[in-house]
Amino acid sequence: MERRPIVMANWKMNKQPNEAIAYIQTAAKAVASYPDVEPILAGQDVLLQSMVDAAEDTTIEIGAENVYWKEEGAYTGETSPKVVANLGVQYVIIGHSERRNYFRETDEMVNLKALAALRNGLKPIIALDETVQTESNNAHMHWIVNQVIEALKGVSKDQMQSVVLAYEPTQAIGSGMAMGPEQAQKDLYMIRETVSDMFDAKVAEQLRILYGGSVKPENAYAIMRQRDIDGVLVGNSALDPDNFIELVKLAHQAKKTK
């Protein structure tokens, strides 16, 4: 089954409103040349309305970087998934490694946020983060499989059509050294097999799984041409709109080789 690849830029805590608008204006026409690739930009909450407005009538989708697991209430400083969805945002990153590391998000919290996103019509991009150095292949496999199981608890087969998974090995994030394409393929294959065991082969085959961690134009093609890698989640490299455009182009080229 053919899966449409995703190139997602996670701006993190970067960009001013005018910079966000200028970036979208720069990238929009170029990425529209590759309709077989889905380009997504994720920005801070305070930028989302400007981003949605700037991306109107383009092929670019907008994503949030995080949401809370409640729609409303006395949760000062948190962001409601209902409000985010009402802005016209389509996607939200759940469980990014920095959320897990700096803000102590647990697997349970990631699951609650994913369910809240789905309840409110958002498409969660659930990040799977290998946060420990494992000493054996079996321990490595167990860590990844367990995160998939915990993240998808309570998610239905129908809801899985809106879910994207993203694997980000901690040792690769911000290091400048991405995981080797062959090892990344093995890990993403294992993730897909876990989803098949949890749901069925059809759900697993439809699921899009991204790789994240020191992705840049120099290594993206080799990563994205792997069978089970359906695109990339990119941080620092994608702060430059020219790099984002190039990554979308490379995703298009890699798709043709599968």
Layout of helices and strands:
Blueprint: E1 6-10, H1 17-31, E2 38-43, H2 48-55, E3 61-64, H3 81-86, E4 91-94, H4 97-102, H5 107-119, E5 123-130, H6 137-151, E6 164-169, H7 181-198, H8 201-206, E7 208-212, H9 217-224, E8 231-234, H10 241-255
Parallel strand pairs: 1-2, 1-8, 2-3, 3-4, 4-5, 5-6, 6-7, 7-8
Helix pairs in contact: 1-2, 1-10, 6-7, 9-10
What descriptive keywords fit this protein?
TIM Barrel, alpha/beta, 258 residues, 8 strands, globular
Put the structure in a nutshell.
The chain is an alpha/beta fold and 258 residues long.
General shape: globular
Overall tally of structural domains: 1
Strand content: 15-25%
Query: Which stretches of 5+ consecutive residues score pLDDT under 50?
Result: none
Question: What structural category arises from helix and sheet content?
Answer: alpha/beta
Rg to the nearest angstrom? 17 Å
CATH superfamily: Aldolase class I
Explain this structure to me?
With 258 residues, the protein is α/β, with parallel strands linked by helices. It has a single domain, classed as TIM Barrel, CATH 3.20.20. Helices cover 43% and strands 16% of the residues. It contains ten helices and eight strands. The chain has helices spanning 17-31, 48-55, 81-86, 97-102, 107-119, 137-151, 181-198, 201-206, 217-224, 241-255, and strands at 6-10, 38-43, 61-64, 91-94, 123-130, 164-169, 208-212, 231-234. It has an eight-stranded parallel barrel with strand order 1-2-3-4-5-6-7-8, surrounded by six helices. Helix 6 (137-151) links the parallel strand 5 (123-130) and strand 6 (164-169). The radius of gyration is 17 Å and the shape is globular. The N and C termini lie close together (11 Å). The model has no long low-confidence stretch (mean pLDDT 93).
